[in-house]
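Interim report, section 4.2 (structural modelling).
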Amino acid sequence: MTPRISRCVCAALFTILLLNACGQKEQASNAPQQKTDAAPAAALRLPGGDWGLPTPFTFYPRGPGYLHMSLVYDTLVWKDRGGFIPWLAESWEASPDGATWTFHLRKGVRWQDGRPLTAADAKFSFEYFKRFPMEWFPMEKITGVDAPNDATVVIHLESPYAPFFGHIAGSIPIIPEHVWKDVANPRETTDAERVMGSGPYRLASYDKAQGAYAYEANPDYFMGAPAVGQIRFVPAADQVAALQRGDVDLATVPASLLPQFQGDSPFRLISGPSYWVLTLQFNRSEASFSDVAARQALAHALDLKALIEQAVPGGPQGAKPGSPGFLPPDSKWFDAEVEDAYPFDLDKARTLLQSAGLSDRDGDGICDGPDGAPLHFTLITASTYLREAEAVKLMLHGVGLDVEIRSLDVKTLDSMVRDGHFDLALTGHGGLGGDPATIIGFGTVRDAMLSTATPTNPDYVAAAERLIETVDPGERMALCKTMQRLYAEEVPVIPLYYPITFMAHRATPGIDWFYTAEGGVSIGIPSPLNKLVFIGEDKVKH
Amino acid sequence: MSGYLLRRTASYLLVLAAALAINFFLPRVIPGNPVEEASSASGSLPVQLDRQTVDAIRKHYGLDRPVAAQFGSYLAGLARGDLGWSIGYKAPVGRLILERLPWTLVPAMGALMASFALAVLFGIRYCTRDGGEWRVLLPGVLLESAPPFVLGGLLLVLLSVKIPIFPLSGAYSAFSDLTGLRSAIDVAHHAALPFLVLVASNFFSAYLVVRSSLLLVRNEPYVLMAEIKGLPESVIRRRYILRNALLPVATFFGTRLATSTGRAILVEVVFAYPGIGRLSYEAVLSHDYPLLQGIFLAFTLWILLVNFCADCLYMSLDPRVREV
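Predicted structure of the assembly:
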């Protein structure tokens, strides 16, 4: 009986495969016919995932969510590989105090439904976001918006705000007044017809369950029809496998798999900064680490290059060593002078520890506290960083610090660090590419939800407060240098490394992937999915 | 309705009431909250929320109200059939669950039934005769000891990447406008590997239960009596052994069915299958209170329903239960 059954099962499976293979062939033969209808030929398939319906109120406030929304909606300015460029606004000027900005809109821009986009829409957008705050858009600074004529928008700020371009003009989408004016609960408005902006793509289909999106080019786009006619985001659990199989044209590649894509490979690699940092944090309210000398000692005791070699997949290819000034070398605000403030030097580390009152007095190889008892520290971390934690433990053991590792889940780790229930912690965060005044752990963000240690030096705090209001680039650079120097002196945390991201892609004519300037798209999304790639950089009218 | 069923129903209602309260409070005990999640350290881009926005969002989702008041409006919403609005997915919880539930139930239930059917088939075959059982036990042990995600990953590499005959991920081809039979085949094609993994991971334990139950019954005096009477072997197997041996198997099937949705999580993550297991995994990660409450409620109802069905099944399998 059983052999018969297994034969039946095999036959059924085979039939399914065969029928499906036929089906796929048929689909494939249909595809070119569809393509001839649209003028631009190229179509791209990218790894999908559910990032919400791409309206400004329903996209998920995490990186790719904004990228989806930006295909359908435009902002006043945008970023290319060099910096900010005119977008819906063709020119702008600021008042001398930097608190009032006037934007002159491009003429002849139309919504995807054919109606003209005017300054009234822009005014409406800012006021609407003020009424219905969204996670992504900081509206606190805006006190009023005027539209003196159809082509001019004037934005009044409470005070000069340096990140204005990155966080407001280059990030807040302009939405059509005629679509949203009667919507009283935009966060819960999820009908696909609302997805209508002035952007280069229309949403053709969205499958929330599978995380699949299809976008069709908007042939009447104000910069001309986009080069890529169709973008499809398809489900891909394993991006690398999906790329090799031909399901997608671009995939994030872990540094450990790089050899597969180097040399003779049909794929090309691009790499860029992740603007993410792994840090060693101290509990400064504890006696041992309240002394700056102890923290400086640890900075000397850690060999960051060796740590990367031992713990990071891909070794030095996968990450850059941390800078004591906190900002990564990829940031344009980075100060190279502080980079080598703490060279690996065990003798110096021991001397500094001694001056902080931590030394091995009974010769057992472990530093003793003021009462003579050997000191034991707990290093809390998440399971993802266990290799790094082991490396740190061994390095600290070299200067006589006894460290025990405790692995926690990320949520618990975050909350224990926030509440100060730790000695040492190994944890990381992103967003280092944004405006330096708003970077977590570096700038001053009042009442931020996520806080890591920042220097308490009054000079540093004064510089950070000045940085958020100063618009002059030269002065800002000087402030950033001062802050990095003071940061390195005080060592509130030790930045261990900044990972590098790698993307592999199939060479597609007309597609030139790049990483966006000024920390990435919008407020700093370190991803090559800038809509400019799909529109065609040559179309940008400066 | 018998007294037995009435008593069972009453206890189910009690369990449901307790579960509702636990479902509501449990997610709120996890460190962190959904608004904070929007600027999480685990992401590559933490959004910096200003206080004004945080307050507005908390107010919007009613998170600023006292917990008791939140519980009250949750219950009031349930009474209206409204499960709330998912904070992380920005969609009605009820719709999300209904969209995902079939993608878990069909493969998980199908796989469970298939593995029990196989277990009974092989059990009958090998328990009533001697020797050759290693042919089932050996692969059974191997498949049982490999965690489903390892087996799934292995199958993916072999049958989707090296020899690409099965799709890599998803439950159906994206953007295809297949209809009728074609679409059914497409779904089966996508479900084949997850189904296979689930069958493999369920089979052995089912087989062991069937086996021990069959062995126990085989040595009962009434089986010996039937053999002495000279009844044909097939009749003895089906009427005397199998029927009596099925009772513990049905119990076990019930418990496995109740927990099958949870077991499917790992497989769904490996195959990017849009089931409810993956949904709950993501809801936990994002502290999505309303969604977690909804999913837990769905799980609770599912377990109660399965138990109720098992109770009913008992009554027909074993008439003695009716008189208890």
